[in-house]
């Protein structure tokens, strides 16, 4: 489909784009036209998603994290290995709040500090933020994940430096899950506008929780935006990718066989959700 062209209104003599002309002529067909252009990546500023200008102050350190690897802490290493995760990809902070404050003043009170597994977030080989995973597994009051960005403009995304942006990119809910899927990233927080970071063909993977209202809302929004989403088969009981891997499932194959968009996604979503 070619880029939008200009038409001249015979009544007023003013020019307008084909999109605006079609909107005035037939709003229903115009919606279909916009949707097709959206799917083809031909909306916005052009057919190619531009890499953003990423202006923020360089962190105090770039490629190196001044912490020991998770392999050096028995609790961290055992937990990650037990989940079939590679401890060498993550770090360990004995005093999480104190370490964060040494980079960016964040916590007013460090009296009740705690150890955490550190999940690094890199962009263009710069450490732009972290996500800290609690090691206090049996304490329901402990916040499971704490995300700290060293600059407010940085992408709250794990794995941006390790993907091909010209291919479909799988988007998971958490960093640990993304390590099991080819060409994937993880959102360390709520959904974001990933095309801002050069990703033109995302495939969204949400947790397998058909009774979770927040997840249902996010899946619904993704479908309404015309983007691709994974709808898990009803035969799978595990709630996330990591649990599926531990149960022996070939998760990559399951995902590739259950990608939907448009009307098909709406139908699958309707039969999958339990609310």
Structure description:
The structure is a single chain. The chain folds into three domains: 6-39, no CATH class; 70-154, DNA primase, catalytic core, N-terminal domain (DNA primase DNAg catalytic core, N-terminal domain); 160-272, 3-Layer(aba) Sandwich (Dna Topoisomerase Vi A Subunit, Chain: A, domain 2). The two termini are 39 Å apart. With 275 residues, the chain is of the alpha/beta class. The strands form three sheets. Strands 7-9-8-10-11-12 form a six-stranded mixed sheet. The chain has a four-stranded antiparallel sheet with strand order 3-4-5-6. A two-stranded antiparallel sheet has the order 1-2. The chain has nine helices and twelve strands. 28% of the residues lie in helices and 18% in strands. It has helices spanning 18-25, 27-39, 74-82, 96-103, 175-178, 213-224, 241-246, 251-256, 262-272; strands at 6-8, 15-17, 91-93, 116-123, 126-134, 145-149, 157-158, 169-172, 184-187, 202-204, 228-230, 259-260. A hairpin with a 2-residue loop joins strand 4 (116-123) and strand 5 (126-134).
């Amino acid at each position: 489909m070619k880029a939008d062209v200009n038409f001249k209104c015979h009544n007023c003599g003013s020019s307008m784009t084909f999109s605006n002309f079609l909107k005035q002529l037939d709003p229903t067909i115009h919606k279909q036209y916009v949707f097709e252009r959206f799917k083809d990546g031909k909306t916005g500023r052009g057919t190619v998603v531009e890499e953003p200008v990423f202006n923020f102050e360089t962190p105090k350190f770039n490629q190196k994290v001044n912490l020991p690897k998770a392999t050096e802490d028995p609790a961290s290493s055992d937990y990650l290995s037990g989940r079939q995760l590679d401890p060498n990809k993550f770090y360990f902070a004995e005093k999480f709040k104190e370490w964060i404050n040494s980079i960016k003043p964040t916590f007013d009170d460090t009296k009740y500090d705690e150890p955490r597994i550190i999940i690094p977030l890199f962009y263009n080989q710069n450490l732009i933020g972290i996500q800290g995973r609690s090691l206090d597994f049996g304490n329901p009051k402990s916040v499971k994940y704490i995300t700290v960005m060293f600059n407010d403009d940085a992408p709250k995304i794990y794995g941006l430096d390790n993907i091909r942006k010209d291919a479909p990119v799988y988007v998971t809910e958490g960093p640990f899950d993304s390590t099991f899927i080819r060409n994937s990233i993880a959102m360390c927080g709520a959904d974001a506008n990933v095309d801002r970071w050069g990703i033109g063909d995302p495939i969204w993977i949400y947790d397998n929780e058909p009774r979770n209202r927040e997840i249902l809302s996010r899946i619904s929004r993704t479908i309404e935006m015309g983007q691709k989403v994974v709808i898990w088969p009803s035969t799978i009981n595990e709630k996330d990718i990591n649990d599926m891997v531990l149960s022996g499932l070939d998760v990559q194959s399951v995902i590739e066989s259950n990608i939907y968009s448009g009307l098909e996604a709406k139908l699958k979503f309707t039969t999958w959700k339990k609310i």
